[in-house]
Amino acid sequence: MLFNFLLKARVYGLLATGLLTSQTALAQGSEISAQSLGLVPLPREVKAYSATYALPQKISVYAVSPAERNVATLLQGMLTPLGKTVTLTTNRQAAQIVLATAATTSPEGYQLVVDKAGVKITAADGPGLFYGTQTLLQLLPARAAATAKVPYVRITDQPAFQWRGGMLDVCRHFFPVSFVKKYIDFLAAYKMNTFHWHLTDDQGWRIEIKKYPKLTEISAFRSETLLGAQQQMKTPADFKYDGTPYGGFYTQEQIKDVIAYAQKRYVTIVPEIEMPGHSVAILAAYPELACKPGPYQTWTKWGVNEDIVCPTEPTFQFFENVLTEVSALFPGKYIHIGGDEAPKARWKESAAVQEIMKREGFTDVEKVQGWFNRRIEKFLQSKGKKLIGWDEILEGGIAPSAAVMSWRGEKGGIEAAQHGHDVVMTPTTNLYLDYGQNPQPHSPYEPLMIGGYLPLAKVYSYNPLPKELTPEQQKHIMGVGANMWTEYITTPEKAEYMLFPRFLAAAEVAWTPAALKSYEAFLPRMGQQFARLDAKKINYRVPEPLGLDSASVVKQGNKAVLTLRTLVPGSQIRYTLDGKMPDETTELYTKPFTVPQNRQITVRAVTVAPNGRKSPPTELLIK
Question: Which of 21, 111, 164, 312 has the most CB atoms in a 10 Å sphere around its CB?
Fold first, then answer.
């Protein structure tokens, strides 16, 4: 009797479980492609379903701990432009969005679940909760809607690298605090966690140092700025200037404000104070720190200046005083000392440097820079900080605890990791976002820029883990940094043009494991971000149409079949066959078309985005 009862109970239980599973599947709908969500960077694990949860106009967010409440407050501000009224609550049952802390495998990882109960984000602490909210925002419409439908999802995510950075050079051209904060917003929105702030260089000193007021009275300003592309200037007569004084700096109060802004968004700021090279602006204010008498001026050209500080006791005292104030301002553990492009011509001529070499037993003047760096590092350690510098710091020898930014390709990073140094990969070949986006050097259809060619595909293709390293050595690769040097980037709008959409590719390099990346799959996901960039009034570069390259041409007898496609949803492709510039009035592309191959034809095409902005032209010469 008992056996029959237990058997029936088990059968009914199995039936009930099957029914429940069926009902659950019915409630969440059919599984849909994670690709369709358009998330950038791509999360590690995504399950998405056709059913949706409707976020009402009035939203309550459950948040209790300080980290939860900080993230909830930020989310409140981000949902307001979408037409939502958000309040924080400690009543979990009344909340449509729940932020919860719990143990996870990654300090920056998170789990995002959307189902009939609402939205729940779980993470170990604030960073993961914040990244979960950034993913949630990408699931919502880009613009205000009375009811926002969020697809049912179960996302488990964590970053591939601990250092996911973006650098902004504010020395060659100065940017206001408002744009510095906007740049931090760019980083945070795409789960980047490090802002490398290049604060001093030959062309301007940008940080207030209380002990040295002449740095902001003199070093922060140059008499004029070079006009045109310096790399095209061959003789002294080619150098023309605007004749307008230029400069600016951040007060320590402004810097504290920016730091607090970044901290709330889980972005660490790494300040860069260049030494011993790129220091002529210092000499303009304090010429006694040079190896030979001045006067000096804050530089008006770009490139590398042979006048650098002398590695003498007054110079060490100067930098120790500067770094004392910098260390007190910035709470992060790293301070960047530059260390790149430091010509030794003045040192070779200096009796003081010769005396140092004799005393220290050096036969190579490059070793003096290593000695200089190690002494600075020891001082930074006394302030509880770690030194990081460009890969040139390897040449004179560095202490084991120093970290390296590998910019001249990967060679320096590989060598550093092999010797046990932590490394940030930031090679010019893949991550210098001030490089050109057009294969035609100095194209008339692009703004003035430093040159080079770094297309979106090459940024995306980068893998920061060199095959030359063993798995153990690869652990020293902390991550990547995307750099924005500003010799030719004069305004926030131009900075945005150079950053986007390549910055989206860099963010995916930093967050998503290489094994999960696919450029072809990235492109449509990236395309869904343009509406979001429009909503934030970001001046991105509209991508050209694809298909006008020899590899895409299909030959049919004596004709070529051209198939074009756009990367911007809702955009048009306009083209011409007479070499003229396409615009809104020229032929609208609607389907593949043919052109004869027995005569020369120049096919040109542009993308016209929904906001009316046009891409630079792409073209193909048919011979």
Answer: 164
Which CA distances in Å does 204 have to 220, 323, 527?
A: 5, 18, 38
Q: Which string of b and e fits 451-464 if b means at least 16 CB within 10 Å?
A: eeebbbebbbebeb
Signed CA dihedral, 323, 329, 334, 336: sign only: negative
Per-residue pLDDT reduced to its tens digit, 16-51: 344 334 455 546 789 999 999 999 999 999 999 999
Task: Please report the DSSP string for 463-476 in residue order.
Answer: -SS-TTS-HHHHTT
Six token digits for residue 77: 């501000």
**Residue 15 predicted with pLDDT over 60:** no
For residue 371 the two structure tokens come to 């000695």
What is the C-alpha separation between 449 and 440, in angstroms, rounded? Answer: 12
Q: Is the dihedral of CA 157, 158, 160, 166 positive or negative?
A: positive
What residues are labeled active site? 201, 278, 341
Q: Which two tokens stand for residue 292?
A: 């030979």
Spatial separation of the C-alpha atoms in residues 170 and 469, rounded to whole Å = 34
Closest Cα to residue 407, out of 161, 160, 167? 167
Share of the chain above pLDDT 70, in %: 96
Alpha-carbon distances, residue 408 vs 133, 424, 437, 550, 601 (angstroms): 36, 12, 20, 32, 41
Residue 342 has which token pair? 């430091």
Edge-first strand order for the sheet with 58-62 is 31-32, 45-55, 148-157, 110-115, 118-123, 97-101, 58-62, 85-89
Cβ neighbours around 293 below 10 Å, total: 8
Is residue 367 helix, strand or coil?
Answer: helix
Cβ proximity of 545 and 577 under 8 Å? no
CA 426/CA 583 separation, integer angstroms: 37
Residues 480, 424 contacting (CB under 8 angstroms):
yes
CA 496 – CA 66 distance, rounded (Å): 33
Q: Is 317:309 a contact under the CB 8 Å cutoff? A: no
d(CA 441, CA 437): 9
| Nearest Cα residue to 173 out of 406, 567, 488 | 488
Residue where the block lists tokens 């000499």:
283
Per-residue pLDDT tens for 305-314? 999 999 999 9
Judge contact between 45 and 65, C-beta under 8 A: no
The token pair that represents 518 in the structure block: 């696919």
Dihedral of CA 423/427/432/437: which sign?
negative
- Per the CB < 8 A criterion, the answer to whether 297 and 223 are in contact is yes
- Confirm whether pTM is higher than 0.70: yes
> What's the Cα-to-Cα distance from 48 to each of 19, 150, 160, 540, rounded to whole Å?
21, 10, 22, 29
Which of 215, 186, 189, 213 is CA-nearest to residue 200? 215
